[in-house]
From TrEMBL:
UniProt entry keywords in alphabetical sequence: ATP-binding, Membrane, Nucleotide-binding, Transmembrane, Transmembrane helix, Transport
ABC transporter domain residues: 379-573
GO cellular component, one term: plasma membrane
Protein name per its UniProtKB record: ABC transporter ATP-binding protein
Keyword GTP-binding among record annotations: no
Length: 574
């Protein structure tokens, strides 16, 4: 019960924002439409059971007139009420049957659009996509694959939530209305001098509880197996993706045999578990089919007692048999839907965790005060303490001035926190205290492995600007100047450039990007580590010559480059 409360709390947490959003009018209208059609269809079915009662009795009495009028026009029930016949309600029922899934899908699609936009925006806002890794261990279920959360889980969460909700409502309404019908129709039965009122209702209840309990005994393990199936499939997929992502390393080590064994192991888990699911499903199938066969005859047997005693018409007997099967079906839904409920529960949990992690990452406020300074001012770092995500100190009370227009190099042993200092200045590392006076002017941070977006080479050179914003001739000149003239004919080619260009070429491309964007400050974090000293010197000289007045702050371990800078700041570990 506690567990159910937690799941419902998560569902509410994920559902509420949409139904309170600016699209709430349409959302509620569609939901109410879906509910209205659901109720109407159950209602029509219930009313039709009375019409069938009359047809069957007419059939038994060979009363052609009542039978045909009932089929094509209307019937009068025993109490004298007029009930539309089969054909008059067939058309509206058909339309409702078609429009129910349509409205449900429309709601699903609109909700998905809204939630995808919202989650994508939240994920990209304030570098949340980057911070998520800082606020979680990375292994927290739900925070691991944001791409899968946004593309797959949103859709399945919405679709399954709506389906479970509609099924739940349908089955509850069916159960109560048909149980009530059974109670009214069945009448009393006298057994050994004791009168049992609504005996058919009680018989149906006892039978349904028994059938539900037996089904539960056989079926409940299916939920766990389905859950495990998702996990084994995910492990297999992860194994395959891992090989793709590390293709070069595996190829160089000739690690195919080891990888193959790992993948085979992952697949055998998928295979074995699916086999277990099949066996369990077979058992469940045998049981449910058996119960279905029994239940039809059970209903006839129990119902016929009053029929043979001449206290009930044939039509009423048939109506009771139908009501019994509806009650059975509704009870059956509650007992056999674990598999789908377990899958749905897993989706809810993953998406809710992702949303919580995003909320946490977004709410994370750094304690470092950033004071905007004039565009031409120096950058001043005062009393800056930088921490790791676990709270341990990386840099303790660091103060420095980075001169405007100067060339400063920051050096320190590996792991001291040089790159993290750049992250603090860039404003993406929230674990810092102190003060930064930051000139209000365009800055560019260039990591050791520059990021290359998916798409054309032109896009890669212009990034983060759109290629339409950049003058073509200017871009070509920049590319040629950094020594990449061989790439000029390939500018419009789409390729995985991050894999096809050598690390040195990628670093040259990053310099072309600086020449294109012309920031006032550039932070180079070992941005020439894959180049030889001559190429490195040429690129630095190019920056000074093409972007006069540019401020350069570098991180490097190379002595040759240290000498090229006018100021050197050495960081100390605490
Ligand atoms: N995302 C992160 N999560 C946890 N710890 C991190 C993270 N990024 C960096 N660190 C830790 O912070 C410390 C400093 O890392 P940083 O990369 O800033 O050092 P560095 O001086 O630039 O090293 P190198 O010269 O090797 O590039 C290291 O101990 C590293 O493990």
């Amino acid at each position: 019960m506690q567990h159910l409360r937690l799941v419902l709390k998560d569902v509410w947490y994920l559902t509420r924002p949409y139904f309170m959003s600016e699209e709430r009018g349409r959302a509620w209208a569609l939901l109410l439409g879906v509910l209205a059609l659901t109720f109407s269809l159950v209602g029509i079915d219930l009313v039709q059971s009375f019409a069938r009662n009359v047809y069957y009795t007419a059939l038994q009495q060979r009363d052609v007139k009542t039978f045909l009028r009932g089929l094509f026009w209307y019937v009068r029930s025993e109490s004298g009420a007029i009930i539309p016949g089969f054909f008059p309600v067939a058309a509206p029922a058909l339309l409702m049957g078609v429009y129910l899934p349509y409205l449900q899908q429309l709601l699903q699609l609109r909700w998905r659009r809204w939630l995808t936009r919202r989650m994508t925006a939240q994920w990209l806002e304030n570098q949340t996509y980057y911070r998520i890794a800082l606020v979680t261990s990375g292994l927290e279920a739900g925070a691991d694959n944001p791409d899968q959360r946004i593309q797959e889980d949103i859709n399945s969460f919405i679709s399954d939530t709506l389906t479970q909700f509609v099924n739940f409502v349908t089955n509850v309404v069916t159960l109560f209305s048909y149980a009530g019908l059974l109670w009214t129709l069945s009448g009393p039965l006298v057994v050994l001098g004791i009168t049992i009122p609504g005996y058919f209702f009680w018989a149906a209840l006892v039978y349904s509880v028994f059938a539900t309990w037996v089904t539960h005994l056989v079926g409940h393990r299916l939920a766990g197996l389905q859950f495990l199936q998702q996990r084994t499939e995910a492990n297999l997929r992860y194994g395959l993706v891992h090989v793709r992502d590390n293709a070069e390393g595996i190829a160089l080590y000739r690690g195919e045999a080891e990888e193959k064994a790992g993948l085979e192991h992952a697949f055998s888990a998928v295979y074995d578990n699916f086999l277990a699911i099949m066996r369990r499903t077979r058992m469940l199938g045998l049981l449910t089919t058996g119960l279905e066969v029994i239940s039809g005859n059970f209903a006839l047997l129990v119902g016929s007692i009053r029929y043979f005693a001449n206290k009930m018409t044939f039509g009423t007997l048939m109506q009771m048999v139908m009501a019994f099967s509806r009650v059975q079906g509704a009870m059956g839904w509650f007992s056999t839907s674990y598999a789908s409920l377990a899958t749905w529960h897993a989706e809810v949990a993953r998406l809710a965790t992702f949303q919580r992690v995003m909320d946490r990452a977004r709410a994370m406020e750094g304690e470092c005060r950033v004071i905007p300074a004039a565009a031409g001012a120096d950058m001043v770092l005062r009393d800056l303490t930088v921490l790791r995500p676990d709270g341990t100190v990386m840099l303790d009370h660091v103060s420095m001035t980075l001169r405007h227009g100067g060339m400063t190099v920051i050096s320190a042993p590996s792991g001291t926190g040089k790159s993290t200092l750049f992250r603090v200045i860039a404003g993406i590392w929230p674990f810092a205290r102190g003060e930064i006076e930051r000139p209000d002017t365009p800055m560019m941070f260039v990591p050791q492995r520059p990021y290359l977006p998916v798409g054309s080479l032109r896009r890669a050179v212009c990034y983060p600007m759109a290629d339409t914003q950049v003058d073509d001739a200017h871009m070509r000149t920049a590319l040629a100047a950094v020594g990449l003239e061989r790439l000029l004919p390939l500018l419009d080619e789409e390729a995985p450039w991050g894999q096809t260009l050598s690390p040195g070429e990628q670093q040259r491309l990053a310099f072309a990007r600086i020449l294109v964007a012309r920031p006032a400050w550039v932070f180079l974090d070992e941005s020439t580590s894959s180049l030889d000293a001559t190429a490195e010197g040429m690129l630095y000289a190019l920056l000074r010559q093409e972007c006069p007045g540019i401020t350069i702050v570098s991180i490097t371990h190379r002595a040759s480059l240290l000498a090229a800078h006018d100021t050197c700041i050495t960081l100390q570990s605490p």
